[in-house]
Each structure stands twice: as structure tokens, then as C-alpha cells.
Design brief:
The chain is of the alpha/beta class and 131 residues long. Helix content is 37%, strand content 19%. It has helices at 11-18, 26-31, 36-44, 54-62, 69-84, and strands spanning 51-52, 89-94, 97-102, 107-113, 127-130. The longest helix is centred in the middle third of the chain and has 16 residues, at 69-84. The protein starts with 10 loop residues before the first helix and ends with a strand.
Length: 131
């Protein structure tokens, strides 16, 4: 019988490697333990920032679209509202900009100005948020 050691020489080394604690939020650090809200946010991903896929970033760049801080906040707000309603793939309209967002991963899949949308038809979405 062959025994694998994986480089561990003691039980303490195994514990320190595999039982590491996850970092606490600032609120949890104050309290010294995790609140129910902290655990819920970690599990659901609520509160994470919207990010852009390579395709969406490329679209923004080639179309010379620059988002203001206010527009980013509104995009984030629209994504949170879509998540609260159980939408998975959402059209989020911010001013004259249209974003297709994969809500569970908080990722903008594509972005365009509404005037560029052919015939104003958006497919493969299950909800829309107008902010």
C-alpha cells in the first residue's frame, strides 16, 4: 500500500492549510464574529461590483463609450434590482446606454448605445431594468 504524504508532517499543518478562515467584513471585524447579513452576502454574492467581460470592455472601447461614476452606480443599482427579482440575464438601460448583464455573476456581457441596437430587439434576456 502506497501512502501519500502531500508534504504534510503533522495534523496541525493539514488543519492550517484546509481549515483557513475566510476574511471577515469590516462590520464583522468590529463585532468579532460574522453576522447573519455577512454570511448571507458572502453566500449570495450580494454587494459585489459589476464587472465587464472582455467582449463588453472591447465594445465600450471601440464605441468610445465612457461611463461616469454616476452611470456606474446606476448600472450597479439596476443589477441589484434585477437580482432581487430573480432575473438571470437582464437588459439594463442607463440613459442612452444598453447593457446586457449576467446577473448571477454581476458581469456585463455586452454594451451599446440604444441607437445602435438593430430594430431595438434584445434577445436572450429574461428581464429588463430601466434606471
Amino acid at each position: 500500500m502506497k501512502i501519500q504524504t502531500n508534504g504534510f508532517h503533522s495534523l496541525e499543518q493539514v488543519q492550517s492549510e484546509y481549515l483557513k478562515k475566510k476574511p471577515l467584513s469590516p462590520a464583522a471585524k468590529k463585532q468579532g464574529s460574522l453576522s447573519f447579513q455577512d454570511i448571507l452576502e458572502q453566500a449570495s454574492g450580494i454587494g459585489r461590483e459589476v464587472r465587464f467581460s472582455k467582449h463588453a470592455a472591447s465594445r465600450l472601447s471601440t464605441r468610445n463609450i465612457e461611463l461616469t461614476d454616476q452611470q456606474m452606480e446606476r448600472l450597479q443599482e439596476g443589477t441589484k434590482k434585477a437580482e432581487a427579482k430573480g432575473i438571470r440575464d437582464s437588459l439594463v438601460l442607463v440613459d442612452s446606454l444598453a447593457f446586457i448583464v449576467n446577473v448571477p455573476s454581476s458581469t456585463v456581457v455586452t454594451a451599446m448605445e440604444q441607437s445602435e441596437a438593430q430594430e431595438n430587439i434584445f434577445t436572450n434576456i429574461d428581464g429588463a431594468v430601466i434606471i
